[in-house]
Specification:
four-stranded mixed sheet, elongated, alpha+beta
Length: 83
């Protein structure tokens, strides 16, 4: 029996790294790559806020697809550079 409160799990592969500094005094730039493992959608990010926004968007899209029962086909890969 399926209920509205059924627990759903989403998995993400997240890689974060610091780009080398352009100058000796400048801060190292944070960069990241995120892949939503259920859909294959991916995104490159340049700050933690962009990473959070992407993950929340993917979770919202997953809820929308589940609600409309449109999960027959995997979503297309999306590369979104937020640099």
């Amino acid at each position: 029996m399926t209920t509205a409160r059924e627990r759903r799990i989403a998995s993400f592969l997240i890689r974060l790294w610091f780009e080398p500094r352009e100058t000796e005094e400048g801060p190292a730039a944070l960069r990241g790559y995120i892949r939503h493992l259920q859909t294959g959608n991916e995104c490159y990010v340049s700050d933690l806020e962009a990473m959070t926004d992407y993950v929340l968007r993917q979770l919202h899209n997953e809820d929308t697809e589940t609600a409309s029962q449109a999960v027959d086909e995997p979503a297309h890969d999306v590369k979104n550079s937020l640099r």
